[in-house]
Amino acid sequence: MLVPIVALLAGLLVTTTANTAAGTELRNDRRPELTNLIEKRQQDVSAAEERADRLRRDVEALTGGIGKTDAGVAQQQGEAADREAAAGLTALRGPGVTVRMNDAPRRPDGTRPANASADDLVVHQQDVQAVVNALWAGGAEAMMIMGVRIIATSAVRCVGNTLLLDGRVHSPPFVITAIGDPGRLQRSLDESGGVRLFRNAAADFGLGYEVRVEGDVTVPAYHGSLALPGAKVPE
């Protein structure tokens, strides 16, 4: 007696599911939609950056014109120009090193190394920050990550296994280039505890870590916003 009842209930369930789906997938994969949303936001960021660059150029042209007739403005412009290099607002060229960091490659069978978790196989924010700190400590005169100039107010932030810099998302491998004395920069990397931990993880789990000496490399000027809404001049 139970068999017909179970069959009837199963039939009702199938019919209800079909009517609810109405020819669509109930468990629709939203990853393509999320990918399109990320791409759209990146395009919006690029458009906003281009507009900001145009406005900055307009401001510089206007203030430059005023400086020709106003001695006070001209003096301030001269003092600002003297500090541009130290602030990272001019390009710099010279010898240095490049550090390349990458996630561990996927195995063909989808397995992981023994005793490794998913977090052990990717480059994390603290790993990139450790390299950046070591290069600054080694006397780096200028630095860029993924071609983006890094200055005193730049922040190294990771979202998942991607790096967020100036509103743009970068996927590994992460490439960090610093200008300075190559020998001193390499020694600073070797002496850094955080870098040493990542190198050990690279040896254990197959992450990528490579240091290359650069005989001549150019780090571009910083073109982002210099506004500091949370800062104030100390009394």
From TrEMBL:
Pfam families, per the entry: DUF881
GO CC term, one of those recorded: plasma membrane
Keyword Zinc: no
Domain of life (superkingdom): Bacteria
Annotated signal peptide: 1-21
Name of the protein this chain belongs to: Membrane protein
Family under the similarity heading: Belongs to the UPF0749 family.
Keyword check for Coiled coil: yes
Coiled-coil residue spans: 38-65
UniProt source species: Virgisporangium ochraceum
InterPro entries listed in its UniProt record: DUF881
Swiss-Prot/TrEMBL keywords: Coiled coil, Signal
